[in-house]
Amino acid sequence: MTDVILVLNAGSSSLKFAVYPAQAPGCSAILRGKIAGIGTAPVFSARDASGEQLPPAEAMHVLPPKAGSDALIPALLHWLAARPERFALKAVGHRVVHGGLRQSGPARVSDALLAELAALNPLAPLHQPHNLAAIRVVAQAQPDLVQVACFDTSFHRSQARLAQLFALPRALSDAGILRYGFHGLSYDYIAQTLPAHLGAKAKGRVIVAHLGNGASVCAMRGGKSVATSMGFTALDGLMMGNRCGNIDPGVLLYLLEEKAMSLPDLNHLLYHDSGLLGVSGLSPDMALLEASPAPEAAEAIDLFCYRAASTIAELAVSIGGLDAIVFTAGIGENSARVRGQICAHLGWMGVDLDANANAKGATLISAPEAKVSVLVIPTDEESVIAAATLALMIG
Ligand code: ADP
Fold first, then answer.
1. Domain covering 199-376 in this structure, CATH number
2. What fold is seen in the domain 2-157+384-394?
3. Beta strand spans in 177-254 (E)
4. Which pLDDT does position 62 carry in this prediction?
């Protein structure tokens, strides 16, 4: 038998999972997979540690087409238990988007914690309810299993009050309308990994750009979050695949008052129809836009890069300058064009890319004499969750 930890990242339409050995922190995943199309037509896929595709699960074949996570998670547990590796599941670690102000690190799940986290649902309506539903389904299937919640907000709890405040009346800040920040598990991973790449400079003034479908940047000093671009919700900050990011709030008032836009329509506009999709009119997917000859696609990419660079420059204020930039997540790890364009805007800050290294996707892509080191580091949120789950399971 192999004692293992299961890591779950439950979204509205997909469930990502990874299996780690439960013995030592820092091990790599034994297998990783995903169930896409939850609620419509679930599709199961999994790969072993060498990247080899595993045969589709029997249990997944017999699922009704509209199966939700209440049926799919027990099926996944069943599939794992039947694997030839003879896994003995010891604990489940969950990605939970919002931990509010109280959760400054991973926490073992209890009824009280679940109630506290459910009260945060309105702050992250697209993610939090699904994250919590996964915890409840696992608890129902295997009530004795240790479960650990790891929060995207926790990494930012080190921020000073100024970085968290909106310029709103005090009563609203006191009521929790603050900048919480997200993508913290990814930033935590980069902060842990950086000393191996940068030595002492890793503890200096570093800005990490997590550029995926959702995108944000985080300014760190001493490996801790000092400021970040996402705020009260994951709508703020950078332009994203489908989200507009930072916007003049007067536009929202205008749409509501003058254009009589309904709240659901406004919600949809901001979360789904804006960003790369809205500006290009074509797609939220950066790789597709890069391949498109349409001028609207190029304009969307240009705006994405201009705004990302502007936000990096803005956040440099919080850490008093810049020693290193790290690019991570789908776009940050794979798009030489986006990295190149963002860095071109930042030349005046001492950012200078080695075009060859950037094109090859090397880890260090700054020119040898450049004042600011620029790196590409693949993120691994699951490994952060696995390590935290192991620590709390033992502790
Ligand atoms: P999520 O936020 O959903 O985890 P990812 O981190 O997987 O997103 O990032 C998805 C984004 O990365 C998409 O816009 C995708 O087009 C982009 N991407 C992935 N590979 C490439 C590539 N080779 N070139 C440009 N963009 C890429």
1. 3.30.420.40
2. Nucleotidyltransferase; domain 5 (3.30.420)
3. 205-211, 215-221, 224-228
4. 66
